[in-house]
């Protein structure tokens, strides 16, 4: 469908730039659509909202880094796009049901 292309472009952009300070507006601008259009077509095409998808992408990368490096949690948070490690820990727990420390030590 016509909705799918911007959503896929946005998903690809997130995959490449998740470490950066991204939001709906910045990604919409990067792929040349309006934020409201991207929001609508993203949730319809991908099945979850833009922000949730962005968090999901970042948390998956964080999980990999926890297993493959000895970096501190705050360093991992920064590497995956969160400047606030407390906020990162909240989002991480929402997605994994564990704190970053619990996840790493499991």
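-> sequence recovered:
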């Amino acid at each position: 469908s016509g909705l799918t292309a911007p959503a896929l472009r946005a998903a690809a952009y997130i995959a490449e730039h998740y470490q950066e300070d991204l939001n709906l507006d910045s990604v919409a601008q990067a792929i040349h659509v309006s934020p409201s259009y991207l929001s609508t077509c993203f949730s319809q095409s991908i099945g979850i909202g833009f922000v949730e998808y962005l968090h999901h992408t970042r948390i998956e990368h964080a999980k990999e880094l926890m297993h493959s490096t000895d970096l501190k949690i705050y360093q991992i948070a920064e590497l995956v796009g969160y400047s606030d490690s407390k906020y990162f820990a909240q989002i991480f727990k929402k997605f994994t049901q564990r704190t970053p420390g619990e996840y790493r030590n499991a």
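The radius of gyration is 15 Å.
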